[in-house]
Amino acid sequence: MTLRVPAVFLPIQNFGISVPIIPTGKKTYPATFASGTLTLTNGSVISQELPKGLIFTTFNGIEVIPDYSVFIPAGSANGYGYAIVSAHALISGKSGNIPAYGINRVEGTSIYIRNLTSFHGGKDSYTIPLQLPQDRQTALDQAQTNLTKSIHIKEILREK
């Protein structure tokens, strides 16, 4: 005994649809502080120490603070006493990226304070769009709806 089942092959049809994924989330990156170095020279025959909290102001009003206290040796007949200290701007963002010689001043009568190179690393805060899982699901739901409508319209046109 054999059983025969007739088969009718339908033509394969491909349907495609594109739907943009619209991000509804946001990610904010905070501003960063610029940093650099201060060069200190001492023209006095007396060594000096500058405390950590001492604030220096640039020619355009940006305040800079050393990262730690610094000892500046005394000057002598061979030259000035010399020290370098890392420092950072007290204002966050790009405005803290002060140019070289933004600080060029004398403290007291014999300590010269300069930033021989520009400060860098200060960035303003910014926000970027963020794609959330619900955004992908919304786009998928919209694509399925649009695809169903597209298939339904093609079937109506075929029947006519």
Would you give an account of this structure?
It is built from one helix and ten strands. It has one helix at 133-159; strands at 25-29, 33-42, 48-50, 56-57, 63-66, 70-72, 81-92, 104-107, 111-114, 126-130. Strand 8 (104-107) and strand 9 form a beta hairpin. It folds into two domains: 31-126, no CATH class; 129-159. The strands form three sheets. Strands 4-5-7-2-9-8 form a six-stranded antiparallel sheet, with no helix packed on it. A two-stranded antiparallel sheet has the order 1-10. The two termini are 44 Å apart.
Number of strand elements: 10
Radius of gyration using CA atoms only: 35 Å
> Averaged pLDDT, please?
89
| Helix-and-strand structural type | alpha+beta
Terminus-to-terminus distance: 44 Å
- Runs in which pLDDT lies below 50 for 5 or more consecutive residues are none
Percent of residues in β-strands = 25-35%
Strand order of the largest sheet: 4-5-7-2-9-8
Number of helices: 1
In N-to-C order, the SSE pattern is EEEEEEEEEEH
Count of structural domains = 2
Estimate the helix proportion, in percent: 10-25%
Biggest sheet record: 6 strands, antiparallel
Shape, principal axes of CA atoms: rod-shaped
What would the keywords be for this entry?
single chain; 160 residues; alpha+beta; 2 domains; 6-stranded antiparallel beta sheet; two-stranded antiparallel ribbon; 17% helix
What is the topology?
Layout: E1 25-29, E2 33-42, E3 48-50, E4 56-57, E5 63-66, E6 70-72, E7 81-92, E8 104-107, E9 111-114, E10 126-130, H1 133-159
Antiparallel strand pairs: 1-10, 2-7, 2-9, 3-6, 4-5, 5-7, 8-9
